[in-house]
Amino acid sequence: MPGPTRIEAYAIISEDGMLADAQRHIPAALQVKPDQEYFRRGLDRAAALVHGRHSGEGPPGDRERYRLIATRTIASIARDPAWPRALLWNPQGTSLEEAWNALAPPPGSLAVLGGPEIYAYFLKRGYDEFHLSRVPHVRLPGGRPVFPDIGPSRSPEDVLRAHGLEPGPTQLLDARLGVTLVSWTRIPASPNS
Predict the structure, then answer these.
(1) pLDDT, tens digit (0-9, with 9 covering 90-100), for 143-175
(2) Is residue 105 part of a domain?
(3) 85 occurs within a structural domain
(4) Beta-strand relationship, 179-186 and 165-174
(5) d(Cα 73, Cα 117) in Å, to the nearest integer?
(6) Which domain holds residue 148?
(7) Is residue 78 part of a domain?
(8) 2 in a structural domain
(9) What is the DSSP string of 2-59?
(10) pLDDT tens figures, 36-74
(11) CA 47/CA 104 separation, integer angstroms
């Protein structure tokens, strides 16, 4: 097994680019039903998920999904006794392909669920698509940014563009709250490059 066929990420962020508050909690203002529905449909299409120890997709009923849980607490990979189809994975000690083969999910895509270091790791590897939802008028000062290197002069969109992704059309997920979704896709390499 060579690895996932596609790599797609899902994130919902505040106006200032945060995906959680300073205590790593996702506030109610970022829990928007149409976004959660879009997210769940994406996860249902994925063969496996990857996320950090403080991230994940939610209800305990999803414990049967194949998943890699990124952590620095182990040297390479290990079974996670709490999740029947999960591996603890240190990206610094084992390649994604090795971890994927050890996990042995069915062929298909990998859904990246965060946190910031995991999103950044896959920026370097290359996303096929990054689904970025934004909730306007919500700010989380001191919160957890979607990417470690965003700030007052660098937005999440700047980071995605700098890593070879381009935005698709803006979709309105919730008109009352003004929540939008943009799916960023890899710019195909030109045949002359």
Answers:
(1) 999 999 998 899 999 999 999 999 999 999 999
(2) yes
(3) yes
(4) antiparallel
(5) 15
(6) 7-186
(7) yes
(8) no
(9) ---S-EEEEEEEETTSEEE-TTS---GGG--HHHHHHHHHHHHH-SEEEEETT-----
(10) 999 999 999 999 999 987 666 555 457 789 999 999 999
(11) 10
